[in-house]
């Protein structure tokens, strides 16, 4: 009898939460998910037929991922909000991911595109670094929400505001004292991901960390200085690669691709091969495209046409106008999530919104920027649209978590 009552209580709780679903968040997500399934079929059919004798191979798998993803969104939308900020659960997930990353870089697996970043789990190749993005965002959100007062007071003196006694604390020292524990933890994960190597993943993770810390209450002048410093570090990094030509654990060909955008026509048969063919695809598509399924570049000219370079294939088939419409939907979603962070009253929820919006924004910008030659090629997929089980599941987990935060905020508003 007690079991039946408990089950009824759970069902009633879920029904109540469904009434508060944020359709302004979910509708753009579902549109992008549907576009992704459709475009994966179009962009992968030639490769799948030529190599697997089944033109629908990647389409069927992407459709399966999409169906599972909708279930994932439903699950994370309706679980208890407190579970999302449970230090024990987050720590447990991070421990499992740490074990998986250590396994990848020590025992080794067969590399895919030069990177040992995937674990074969039957119908899906699990990429631990993708799942770590969500774990890291939740971990940082818990930590930063518990330390917001300390972050807001950076730059003050020991006994009061610096203006009162002229004795100002060392800002760098203050920040380090506050963030040293997560810094060490995240440093271990990021090092393991770099060893795989996954340069794009490292860039995204570091960018998310910086944005979340700076938007968690740090004074504006410190945020501005940090962004300036990040830009300088990036410039030095690019110059270092060009001059030295090597970084530990990162193959030379990856670094050459990373800097190919600086001179895309300088090595068209090697490091710039993908980028130049991306240009050809976009140029051939013009404003309105050559038609769905009519791409030439996907027929062996542009590698990774259904993953990293799905945007150029879309540009070739549906044209610049079509791509801009899809990008408008995507960036509206990002904008909406950032705006959501301003409305949510729970500080943990605010920071999760900022972290997830940053993840989508950075990943989408890097993918599109690489395809059009204004940013380095890093092997980053486009959220919701590119083929990939881990990527689409992680993005859907993020949407479910955001919906959960929205539901929790609305239910507590009554």
UniProtKB/TrEMBL annotation:
Cellular component terms (Gene Ontology): cell division site; plasma membrane
Function: Peptidoglycan polymerase that is essential for cell division.
TM regions (residue ranges): 21-42, 62-81, 88-106, 126-144, 178-195, 201-220, 227-250, 318-338, 350-372, 384-408
EC number, as in UniProt: 2.4.99.28
Subcellular location, principal: membrane
Membrane topology designation: Multi-pass membrane protein
Sequence similarity: Belongs to the SEDS family. FtsW subfamily.
Matches recorded under PANTHER family: CELL CYCLE PROTEIN, PEPTIDOGLYCAN GLYCOSYLTRANSFERASE FTSW-RELATED
Subcellular location: Membrane
Superkingdom of source: Bacteria
Catalytic activity: [GlcNAc-(1->4)-Mur2Ac(oyl-L-Ala-gamma-D-Glu-L-Lys-D-Ala-D-Ala)](n)-di-trans,octa-cis-undecaprenyl diphosphate + beta-D-GlcNAc-(1->4)-Mur2Ac(oyl-L-Ala-gamma-D-Glu-L-Lys-D-Ala-D-Ala)-di-trans,octa-cis-undecaprenyl diphosphate = [GlcNAc-(1->4)-Mur2Ac(oyl-L-Ala-gamma-D-Glu-L-Lys-D-Ala-D-Ala)](n+1)-di-trans,octa-cis-undecaprenyl diphosphate + di-trans,octa-cis-undecaprenyl diphosphate + H(+)
Entries under InterPro entries matching the protein: Cell_cycle_FtsW-rel_CS, FtsW/RodA
GO MF assignments: lipid-linked peptidoglycan transporter activity; peptidoglycan glycosyltransferase activity
Any one GO BP annotation for this protein: regulation of cell shape
Stated name of the protein: Probable peptidoglycan glycosyltransferase FtsW
Alphabetic keyword roster: Cell cycle, Cell division, Cell shape, Glycosyltransferase, Membrane, Peptidoglycan synthesis, Transferase, Transmembrane, Transmembrane helix
